[in-house]
Amino acid sequence: MKKKNVLNLIKYYSEKNDTAFRNEAYEIAKYFDEINNYQLSEYIMGLLSNTNTFSPQVDDSKSHYFRKVETSSESLPLPEEIKNDVLGIVNAVGHNVGINKFLFQGPPGTGKTESVKQIARILDRELFAVDFNQVIDSKLGQTGKNIAELFDEIQEVPNPEKVVVLFDEIDILAVDRINSNDLREMGRATSSVLKGLDSINNKVIIIATTNLFNAFDKALIRRFDSVVDYGRYSREDLVEIAEIILNELLPKFKSAGRNMRLFKKIIGTMDNIPYPGDLKNMIKTSLAFSNPNSEFDYLIRLYKSALGEQKLDIIDLHAKGFTLRELELLTGVSKSQISREIKEISANE
């Protein structure tokens, strides 16, 4: 915390500038949280709460259409191209030239929603997600009215420069209006979204995500200032990300041993390496279900899960380039016995 934070706090108090006072006090609390002084941070936030000097930018308790989402400070490994696009969004918002609507498209598990959480944290904004369960209505015409009300609420946000609104999986509202398989009601809903985006306050950051970009309404795509493609993962990217994920998880499992070379080799044997979301689940599950008395049991489980095999075949593993030591770790068979088996089979071929 710097001296200017304290001076600003006094200044805003004397000027009776309640909004600036709250924001400055929040920055001080955030500072103590970042240096792990959680008790003092929580005490400050408690004082702010008790004196009503701090309030959220959107009151989701009074809104049918929003829910508060916590931002994230966890590491988010992304390919360099996507990372540069995300940083570009942060820069664009910082320039304050009215660029505020972004669309993240790509397969599930590629980090779209997590990126939004990171962007909100970096920009020091509160994040609110649209609750489509409340927006979509079975009554004819009601969905369009709900969408209009949703955008009215966004327009009335007290401090728009402190808010990010997430339309997660906006596909449900953004289907192609001229698709013959589309219901007329949803076509009208998409038209309501178009109107809402056209009139939105450009100080509010709008980020939408979609897994169905090819079916997206083209007119709606044009409403976004930028579209970021999250499908740009190479095999090398995914192997590197798998290593990052394992390094983050290993400290939580004290009995698990570290053999990054073998781990990367197992990941590399997969024909189609999953995207980070599924990849993390696979690695975490292998660790969680592993035998605490066997430090490399998680690697055996990971190999079986990755390759869909229930039994490890020594000859097959050897053919895939695994060393005798690696085969010993994966199968529990000694290197000398493995070597004999390989020689015997080779001699009989």
Oligomer state equals single chain
Extract low-pLDDT stretches: 50-56, 176-182
Q: What is the overall silhouette? A: globular
Largest sheet: 6 strands, mixed
Q: What is the β-strand count?
A: 6
What can you tell me about this protein's structure?
By secondary structure, the protein is an alpha/beta fold. 52% of the residues lie in helices and 8% in strands. The protein is built from 16 helices and six strands. The protein has a six-stranded mixed β-sheet, covered by helices on one side. α7 packs parallel to α8. The longest helix is centred in the N-terminal third of the chain and has 17 residues. It comes from Sedimentibacter acidaminivorans. Keywords: ATP-binding, Nucleotide-binding. This is Cdc6-like AAA superfamily ATPase. Belongs to the AAA ATPase family.
Annotate the secondary structure layout.
Layout: H1 3-14, H2 18-34, H3 38-50, E1 66-69, H4 80-95, E2 101-105, H5 112-122, E3 126-130, H6 132-135, H7 142-155, E4 163-167, H8 184-198, E5 205-210, H9 218-221, E6 226-229, H10 235-249, H11 260-268, H12 276-288, H13 297-307, H14 314-319, H15 324-331, H16 335-348
Parallel strand pairs: 2-5, 2-6, 3-4, 4-5
Antiparallel strand pairs: 1-3
